[in-house]
Design brief:
The chain is an all-alpha fold and 61 residues long. The protein has a domain of 41 residues. Helices cover 82% and strands 0% of the residues. The chain is built from 2 helices and no strands.
C-alpha cells in the first residue's frame, strides 16, 4: 500500500495536468448539443409520421 503523503502528491500532480475548457468552448459545445438534439427530434418525428401514414395506407384505416 502506498504512503498517504505520496498518494496526495500523485493526485496533485495529476490534477495539475487537467486542462479546463474555456467559456467559449463550453458555450459552443452546449449550443451544438442542443442543435443536434433538435435536428434528431425533427428527423425522428418525420420518420414516425411517414411510417404511421404508410401503415394507415397498408392497413386501410
Amino acid at each position: 500500500m502506498a504512503n498517504p503523503l505520496q498518494f496526495i502528491q500523485q493526485v496533485r500532480s495529476e490534477v495539475a495536468k487537467i486542462v479546463w475548457p474555456t467559456r467559449r468552448e463550453v458555450v459552443l459545445t452546449t449550443v451544438m448539443v442542443f442543435l443536434m438534439a433538435s435536428l434528431a427530434s425533427v428527423f425522428f418525428f418525420l420518420v414516425d409520421l411517414i411510417i404511421r401514414q404508410g401503415l394507415n395506407v397498408v392497413l386501410g384505416v
